[in-house]
Amino acid sequence: MSAILETKELTKTFGAVTAASAISLSIEEDTVVGLIGSNGAGKTTFVNLVTGYLKPTSGTIRYLGRDITALQPRQVTRLGVCRSFQIPQVFDTLTAYENLLVGVGIAARHGGPRKDPEEAAEEMLQRFGLDRFAGAPAGILPEGVRKLLDIAMALVVKPRILLLDEPTSGVSSEDKFALMDLVLGAIRADKVTVLFVEHDMEIVRRYTQRVVAFYEGRVIADGEGAAVLEDPEVRRYVVGEAAPAVRPC
Amino acid sequence: MGDILAVLIDGTIYASWLFIIAAGLTIVYGVMRILNMAHGSLYALGAYAAASLVGTWIRGGHPPLFSYALLLAAAVAVGLVFGPLIERGILRVVYGRDEIVMVLVTYALFLILEDAIKLVWGVESYFVSEPYALLGTVEIGPLTYPVYSAALVLAAAGTGVGLRWGIYRTRYGKLLVAVIHDREIAAALGIDVRKVFLVTFTLGTMLAALGGALTAPTVSVVPGMGVETIVLAFAVVVVGGLGSMPGAALGSLIVGLVRSAAVHFFPQVELFSIYLVMALVLLLRPRGLFVAAEARKI
Amino acid sequence: MKRLDRTTVALLASLAALLASGPLLPRWALFLLTVSLAKGLVVLGLLLLMRTGLVSFGQGLYFAVGAYAAGMMPAADGLLLLLGGGIAAGAVAALCGLLLARYRGIFFAMLSLAFSMILYGLLVKTSALGSTDGFNVQARALALVPAGGPHGRYALFALTAAAASIAAFALHRFFASHLGRLAPAVRDNELRVEYMGASVRNVVHLNLVVAGVLAGLGGALTALAVGHIDPEMAYWTTSGEFVFVAILSGTASVLAPFLGAIVLELLRSFAYEYSPNTWQLVVGASMLLVILFLPSGLWSLFSRWRKALR
């Protein structure tokens, strides 16, 4: 398997603040990678840089060997790199069905699958279990459903790599696993590479093959899930040390 | 040489007039996020009120020297009456709606006020030139200028300094800055945002009326005088950056000098030179000259 | 062919009713309807822009361009004048759109206002076009029917009604198409649109051109109906009136702008007769009332009434 995404010395500074510092990562195709780190560690900045929302101060980003560093988000999306957002970005006054219809229409115009758009939107609704919300305006849907819709929108354009920004944040504990199962199950067949930012270590443990830990804009650990989560620096800055057990008198 | 001097002086005088009007517009937008399209009508109200007050005073045979105080009094009166009236009566009802809806509300207000003025004062023009004529003229090199224009420049400078001191040196000014930055957090800190809005809008109205009151002695006060003014004021605040006081000052200066240059050298383009400048500035600096930094959204 | 939907049926019925009743209407009513429908075209363009999340205070620019373009081709048939007006306005919109498409909200409103005032200034200073007086316009013929007289007036009315119906129908189909669906998407969440791979700038630019063309058509027709054009058509208060009608009608249906325009023209005729100095007050007060109590415009009254009937 070759590297689908490669960043070299990716750096982003905002004046005196270094949001990303010399990040060099190589992501293999068809893997699931977890990005962990405390707030402000640079995980979302990384996603913003890769998807073209931010221009790096220095460093390069390569996707399938092609330099995508200077591209706009819409160009990056058309190449097959999609993302979902921490706060779901959907079209509030349109129904869930119409949301997906818009996405399918855009995908069709830029080299996406040329199916009947209504059918494709219906199919997406069903795949994500959203059909009972089809006629409801996205603005009034519960947060968990909006998150699902946001992720479904990212997948409408049939990306090869999907970046999810805190997919389970704002979702109740009992629904978190269901959501991840649903999302990862829906894309299994298409061999999509997944990177997701997550704070819930259970989710990270369960779904990832590889974990990258961030701290103050740098990568402090990168490797197999269990090993990274045991790493002392990671325990100190990200996971948190286990609290000492309380002994009964 | 005389031409350049004329352009500079004329430009400065015009810029002063623009600044007094733009300052009111800016402070209301900065604090309340409302672009008040009725600002021009409030300017006109100030002019009419001043004309009536001074006119009655002069006709009563009283000393014209006191008319200057009356000009200021007219502006303050208009501010104290119409500021709370509009803010409490209409704006308060539509707070929280989209910025553009607020523009439409103030546009409706502008239409109402324009006709209200006609109903109260009629359609004939008013003339109160005494405060202007009284100060006589002064010679600057080959040019002759009315001393009254210096009063205008002083008023603008005074407004600028006063606002700067008020905002940065007083406790109330600090509350204003807090509300400008984040209305919700300011409220959470216990700041009475509604009172701040009331005071701000009243101040903005007073400034508009001041512009009108100071203009009254130099022109014939007629219906519709606020209409052209508001478009000019918009150009100034858009060039300077919406909500920025230094922007309003710089914008006034730029627009004033450009118009002055146009009047002297290319009179054909006078009418739209200002809008051309606005379009040009926006091409280079899409949000105006002074822009507040924006936090990340995603 | 799919079954015709409600709006299409309503459009066809309205057109038929207008064409049939035309010869029976008194002259003032025919004139009022012609001018209303022409102005309704401008407001239709505003409807499109409002669906895209933009409020333009400068449609007067394209309205005037359409009118002046029509006025400057005196020997042509009314149909050609219409075409010329639309194309000229579309070209200007394409040009202005290069800058305008970058802006939203208040900036967009003010910049569009500024552009229309630039044209106003230009027109006022151009003595060849009559500066503030403007000049008279008269077509030789309208779709080969000689202008002037009851036949000519009916021909103009029919032309206007047809233009309005076709434009409304076209926009109706547009909203059901992919490009049309992008408009509310852009309004709701530009970031998402970009992140799906579409260019927001292109969507806005396209819609600006369409709205410009519609305003130009409206301008050309108004010029023919009134017989006179002047720079006032580009003044920002003219644009403000179009915005008022758009607020009044709401954005729910492509028929609404025309109804709103008719209401405005009726209101104007009566208000002017009784009290010319309070016309603006009436408009302003109505606008406030609509914003406060009927945020979806008068059309929402109509749809509430229909729901109540079920």
Largest interface: B-C, 44 and 38 residues
Task: Tell me the overall shape of chain C.
Answer: globular
The tally of strands of chain C reads 4
Low-confidence stretches of chain B: none
State the secondary-structure class of chain B.
mainly alpha
Helix content of chain C: over 70%
Number of helices of chain B: 12
Strand order of the largest sheet of chain B: 1-2
Low-confidence segments of chain C, given as residue ranges, are none
Per DSSP, what share of the residues of chain C sits in E-state strands of 2 or more residues?
under 5%
The total number of structural domains of chain B is 1
Question: Roughly what percent helix of chain B?
Answer: over 70%
Overall tally of domains of chain C? 1
Largest sheet of chain C: 2 strands, antiparallel
Q: Give the neighbour order of strands across the main sheet of chain C.
A: 1-4
- Kindly estimate the percentage of residues of chain B that lie in beta strands according to DSSP: under 5%
| Multimeric status of the protein | heterotrimer
Class inferred from helices and paired strands of chain C: mainly alpha
Could you tell me the number of beta strands of chain B?
Answer: 2
Order of helices and strands of chain B: HHHHHEEHHHHHHH
CATH classification class of chain B: Mainly Alpha
List the helices and strands and how they pair.
The complex is a heterotrimer of chains A (249), B (298) and C (310).
Chain A: E1 3-14, E2 17-28, E3 32-36, H1 43-50, E4 58-63, E5 66-67, H2 73-79, E6 81-84, H3 96-109, H4 117-127, H5 143-156, E7 161-165, H6 173-188, E8 193-197, H7 201-207, E9 210-215, E10 218-224, H8 225-230, H9 232-239
Parallel strand pairs in A: 3-8, 3-9, 6-7, 7-8
Antiparallel strand pairs in A: 1-2, 1-4, 4-5, 9-10
Helix pairs in contact in A: 3-4, 3-5, 5-6
Chain B: H1 2-32, H2 39-59, H3 67-94, H4 99-121, H5 130-134, E1 137-140, E2 143-146, H6 147-169, H7 171-181, H8 183-188, H9 193-215, H10 225-240, H11 245-265, H12 270-284
Antiparallel strand pairs in B: 1-2
Chain C: H1 6-21, H2 27-51, H3 60-71, H4 78-100, H5 105-125, E1 135-136, E2 141-142, E3 145-146, H6 149-175, H7 178-188, H8 190-196, H9 200-226, E4 228-229, H10 236-249, H11 256-274, H12 279-293, H13 299-309
Antiparallel strand pairs in C: 1-4, 2-3
